[in-house]
Sequence to fold (287 residues):
Amino acid sequence: MPSDSKAKIARFGVFELDLDARELRKNGVKLRLQEQPFQVLAELLQHPGEIVTREELRNKLWPSDTFVDFDHSLNTAVNKLREVLGDSASNPRFVETLARRGYRFIAPVQTATPAESSPQPAASEPSMQRDPGPRPSPALHPDLDVPIPHRALTRGLFTLIQLMYLIFYLVALFRLHAIQNIADSFLPQSAALTLVAAVLVTASVGIPLRCYLISAAGFDYQRLGEKFRQIFPAVLALDQLWAIAPFLLMQKIGLGASFAACAALLYLPFSERTLIRMAYVASESKV
Fold:
């Protein structure tokens, strides 16, 4: 943004930043953006195409006497900014990362004063109306080749899956005697006891695991993508074991429904991994 103090509005793509109103708008609709991500964006727009160092952002966002985990706080602010803009660290359209140096705003920026930004009367002839031009394509995931959705959506779906498994475990433990009766009805006694013991052990392991994943996704733990990749083999094994649970209800829901539910549960751990990869793209490279 030029040094002219009258230029208080910056436009880039379908977005508009109003410094006076301290608002970020997309196609005229106000977006929710917290103070620190807003300040990061405003500082980058002051120097479009130029490198803004991490130290400059630190001095801008935090006073010298403020004690804060600067690296984590700045990374979080940039991640939230990218989330609102639909941007990606690995395939940036707006904010480019320069490792260990800082950030650079790479999209074209237009500036205006509030008077220039006020809506003009619509042209009386359709031919006189301004063509907004093609909208920029959404950022694609570097590995999955799909548009990166809003992180709140992917984290919410991931959390719902964890809640479903948590309910499975709790219901199984509360109705362990019923599982014992079902197992005795079609299995030898030793096999039935083994099945009940497996339910007891895996549910006891699964409950703290799901509580950790729910809390990590809920608090947006920035290293969740890395951690989930590390524990995925254990999650996969646990979920595959619980995929056969619908067959315990075969007498009530039928063989076909049991197979359908089993197939869906067999796929779920892979959908969990995909959701995490879409939600934490930036964790695969340094922010």
